[in-house]
Amino acid sequence: MIILRIKSFFYSFAFHIVALTILGLGLSFSSKELRVANIEDIAIEATLIDVDDIQREIDRLNQIERQEEVNRIEQQQLIEAQRQQALAEVESERKALQLLQSQREAAEQVADQQRSELQALQAEQERIARDAEQRRIEEEQRQIQADQERQRQSDLQAQIQRELDLQQEARQAEELSLLEEYNLMLVRRIESNWIKPPSTISGLMCQLNVTQIPSGDIVDVIVGDCNGDEVVIRSLEAAVLRSAPLPRPPVPSLFDRNLIIDFIPDD
To answer: Domain limits at 88?
Structure first.
């Protein structure tokens, strides 16, 4: 603005100088042309010199103005470039923040997904563990029940076996008693039919092997171990044969085709 005011001042100053010069020239030619010729030449030369200086100053000012305009444009361009750079930096930061936000959101989504999957996995593992524990408890209960059932069956079997053993022992005792009774019946039958020889010793003991049929009839008789003599043995064989038919046992189950009779007569 200062340069423009200076430039306007010089333009006005130059205009007035030129106007005065023209006016002076006109006056000189009309009145005193010959007399003042040298003075006019000097004035014109001085005026021309002043105008050149003014023109140079004007050119210098124009140059300064153009340079200032260039500087102003360059300054505006620099400011615009800086503004654009700032905008670009802001945009870059905005995009970076947006990218960071997107990455953070993506990371949070991944973390949420992983947490969900982990929770699902933990829930599944807990369910499997509960099922396994439930199966273990049920299997343990089944095992306990099976053990109890086996023990019950074992106890029942043992009880049954004891009862059977007792029954068997009772039957055996009864059979033994009946067998002794039957053997005594046979000995008495044979002894009642025995004609005792004079050679019979005291404490006679003879084993009689008798073969009979269900009717009690005798098929064969053999005297086994015997501490009597031959006469005694023959008398015993005859006594057995005379005892036919032999008495039947108290119960049919005691019937034996091959009898072994321990003959020990009363002295």
So the answer is: 2-96
